[in-house]
Amino acid sequence: MRALYIKKPLEAEVGELDSPVLAPGLVLLRVRFVGMCGSDLSSYRGKNPLVSYPRIPGHEIAATIETVGEGVPEKFQPGLAVTLSPYSSCGKCASCLRQRPNACRNNQTLGVQRDGALTEFIAVPFEKLIVADGLRLRDLSLVEPLTVGYHAARRGRVSPTDQVLVLGCGAVGLGAIAAAAFHGATVIAVDVDDRKLELAKRAGAHVGINSKTQNLNERLQSLTEGLGPDVVIEAIGTPETFRLAVELVAFTGRVVYIGYAKDEVRYDSRLFVQKELDILGSRNALPEDFEGVIRMLNETKFPLEEMVSKVVTLDQAPQALQDWYAAPASISKIIVEL
Ligand SMILES: [Zn+2]
Ligand SMILES: [Zn+2]
Q1: Closest ligand to residue 141's CA
Q2: Cα–Cα distance between 23 and 19 in angstroms, integer?
Q3: What's the CA-to-centroid distance between 284 and ligand 1, angstroms?
Q4: What whole-number distance in Å separates Cα of residue 272 and Cα of residue 119?
Q5: Residue 262 to residue 265: CA distance in whole angstroms
Q6: Ligand nearest to the CA of 89
Q7: What is Dmax (Cα atoms) for the chain?
Q8: CB distance 164 to 192 below 8 Å
Q9: Which helix (H) or strand (E) holds 293?
Q10: Is the link from the previous residue into 54 a cis peptide, with omega within 30 of 0?
Q11: From ligand 1's centre to the CA of 219, what distance in Å?
């Protein structure tokens, strides 16, 4: 069968691979659509320290069940459309023992520390599968990217009385915006791109602020009657926005960090104490976040179509990565149809 390989940084090609072998507890999936996000682009650029080469990317998956191994529950029948949680967990580390396997110390994500789904078939443990009634097959590949922001909103304990500020309206930010609105909060979205802010509003943001052309602080003061937002979710990953989150949030508010800042961040730590902040990290997502996103997509008018920059075939995927590398700002998500 065929697969997309990143052979080394800036070199991708379609190659051959042995078909996976079915074993007890495993389900053989025919991969139908795979989304590629910024993290796949980093792997292609050689900028993800967790990736070794050659590597098959792909962790945003829409698939149908081909065959099932022994001991797989009845409900997983051939033909069923599924997505899956691309994370592994060891069951032994502190996170796993606390029922938080999304932050497993020994996590391996498909397409990052181990080969991913940009291949015709994959075999996975049935426990990783997520059935998504009501969604189109292609849209199943957009569930995983939204779970990351969804998990962040849950980490921030977002409730209907909250005003939630989301910094950044990429796929992760959009997931957080939609999730916060879905939990009943008033959502303020911030970006420097008016098109992304429009999309954020369609995803559930009540207000969009372009921080390049508007005074963010002044707008926030008037929107929150001088108190500041109850929750700030940082979805950009720069030292400036890491700091800004702590500066803008209300006293006794919550700050949620999703990405890493690429450089060291210098803080005035006085604000942590004076404001008595809850500062929370948010990593990957739990199975209940996948279920939450599926419910959200079924019950709201989330603009799924607009999240996708283009759809390509497996043969076109190496060129698509090259084009993305050449003009990263023009593309946010590529879907590969297998
Ligand atoms: Zn992704
Ligand atoms: Zn673990």
Answers
A1: 1
A2: 13
A3: 10
A4: 46
A5: 9
A6: 2
A7: 62
A8: no
A9: helix 287-299
A10: yes
A11: 32
- The distance in angstroms from the start CA to the end CA of the chain is 11
Find the ligand nearest to 97 CA. Answer: 2
Nearest alpha-carbon partner for 164 in 148, 145, 179, 143 = 179
170: its two tokens = 């990429």
How deeply is 138 buried, as exposed, middle or buried, from its count of CB atoms within 10 A (0-12, 13-18, 19+)? middle
What residue type is assigned to position 78 of the chain?
P
What are the pLDDT digits (tens) for 263-298? 899 999 999 999 999 999 999 999 999 999 999 999
* 43 alpha carbon, closest ligand: 1
* 334 vs 5: CA distance, rounded Å: 16
Rounded distance between C-alpha atoms, residue 75 and residue 217, angstroms: 52
pLDDT tens digit string along 25-60? 999 999 999 999 988 999 999 988 889 999 999 999
49 Cα: distance to centroid of ligand 1 (angstroms): 16
Nearest to residue 85, comparing CAs of 105, 49, 47, 111? 111
Q: Do 144 and 168 touch, CB atoms closer than 8 A?
A: no
- CB neighbours of residue 330 within 10 Å: 9
For residue 65, report the distance from its CA to the centre of ligand 1, in Å: 22
Residue 243 · residue 267 · CB < 8 Å: yes
**Cα(109) to centroid of ligand 2, in Å?**
13
Ligand found nearest the CA of 35: 1
Residue 333 DSSP SS3: coil
> How many angstroms separate the alpha carbon of residue 29 from the centre of ligand 1?
19
